[in-house]
Amino acid sequence: MQIYKVGGAVRDRLLGKPVTDIDWVVVGATTEEMLAKGFRPVGADFPVFLHPKSGEEYALARTERKSGRGYGGFTFHASTEVTLEEDLIRRDLTINAMAEDDQQNLTDPYDGQRDLEARLLRHVSPAFAEDPLRVLRVARFAARYAGLGFTVAPETLELMRQLSESGELEALTAERSWKEISRALMEDQPQVFIEVLRECGALKVLMPEVDALFGVPQPEAHHPEIDTGVHTLSVLEQAAQHKQSLTVRWACLLHDLGKGLTPEEEWPRHIAHEHKGLKLIKAVNERFKAPKDCQELALLVGEYHTHGHRALELKPSTLLELLQSFDVYRRPQRFEEFIAACEMDARGRKGLEQRSYPQADYLRGAANAARTVAVQPLLEKGFKGPELGEAIKRERLKALKAYKEKA
Ligand code: ATP
Ligand code: MG
Question: Of 183, 229, 256, 339, whose CA is between 20 and 30 Å from 114?
């Protein structure tokens, strides 16, 4: 049997990027031989094994044939006869379809090196169209390598367009889509992921609520970039530049969905967009089965981001309601993430990226003020049950009034 490094490890070494996980392909071996060497089988469908020591993935060289819709609709063929070239041709991009032996000899039948030089994300063969997940993968690689100057080859974008129109994207499971979306959001330029999806028509299928934001104007005085879609991309860009978490980035992407529902007569104003957006945010959350913390923060940011911006003008009672809505006493981290998302929203405006955001410290200070209210003295005064709750609220409100006067 011959063993080769494949995929990302080869690509990233040639790009001079750090290699984290290594995928291997094994040519000329049988399952029995792998098991005899101590490899552990994973997954029922694929002939893939884990190395007994390193835990890295070793896949038997295989060919694939499409036999139905979705990812279940694939037939695999692995045998000692399958060559390295045959295995590489089923891969998504030419830059991912190179292999390397232990002497660093490169096998590059589909000109991956040429495309690395040309900074092009290009599909290997027309079989690209057999797995719609590749649309998301290409957009994700575009987000990752945009900083190096990579773009999607026009003929690949055309294929992605056809795939998006064919209805195949709808066959993707929430789990597979979320895995790509969440990884893409954590790339250096997540806004490029959304841009590429939009360019090929996939955004309209996957997240029509986000797609609908393009072409929707906002008041120029607050939003010099005007377009709500452009604004959303900038907010995402800021979130990445400020190294925000996945939860914050997800909330950034969805915070303004309500603006897509505003009747044109009301443009460029968006009355009550915060509240109107909630059902859309919920729908997107559920469509991709986003993790609970992402779902929760997206809804809270959607509902309260304009409160964040107006923090300094809020009445103490409104501030208190905000803090209560976030359960800031038990969930301080979540409130921090809300503040971060608000700040990214404010910075994601053309020409205002560097403007300071005093609301952030003000909100932190308010949370601290409310938190300093001690429960013990109220217990000692004999408050119990709902009355205790009311007493705590009164004290917190007092603390917030004092805080606002001092600030
Ligand atoms: P990363 O750095 O994100 O791990 P990668 O290229 O190694 O990038 P993996 O998901 O680890 O990506 O997959 C390893 C290789 O398997 C890819 O480089 C590609 O050749 C192939 N591959 C993975 N998923 C697909 C797919 N859906 N369609 C075609 N080829 C795929
Ligand atoms: Mg990999």
Answer: 183
